[in-house]
Input
Amino acid sequence: MADDDSPKDPGKPVDPSVSSTAPAASAAPAAPAASAAPAAPAASAAAINPNAGWVNAAAARIPHAEPLLTECSFPAIKIDAKNLQQGLSVARDDHELAFDVLLDHTAVDWPEKSEFELIYHLFSTKTGRYLSVITNIPRANPIVTTAVGIWPVAELQEREVYDLFGVLYDGHPDLRRLFLDDDWQGFPLRKDYKDDFMLELVK
Output
């Protein structure tokens, strides 16, 4: 018979019903498999653009306008270039829209799409609202109707876009360069513009 090596208290009798070997701990029950979390619902247009309601209403009042609810987080609509002048006129003259100020006019060059994106940033002193009107024109033939007859301030803004992007404005009263010399070659804000004095960033 093997000797029991466990220590014994000589002054205390050993209870034979108690084993000197501790029982093995029972394994904890396996946790149930976590169920897959439900897919998050797609964000609504209102969540992306909190102005969705009135942008839809503005687009409904402007002929040929399309609200840009998910493409832009700011209030914006898109109008085809052929309908641009009509749309801009309605944006100014409609009594509920009343966009009487052309804050800014600029462009974005997209050579990979072979087009320019023209943006008109409008403001209403009546309602306090802002609206951006966006249109696209082909890069190979960048002509659009002038907005000078709607907002006279467009005269200088369109000259700036012509100077830097080469966009032509049909009906402009004095379309010539604004910043650069008249004999400057090329348009510096086109993405493929090059000249001998450009600084190249070291990568």
Observations:
- The radius of gyration is 36 Å.
- Strands lie at 65-67, 76-79, 101-110, 115-123, 130-138, 143-145, 168-170.
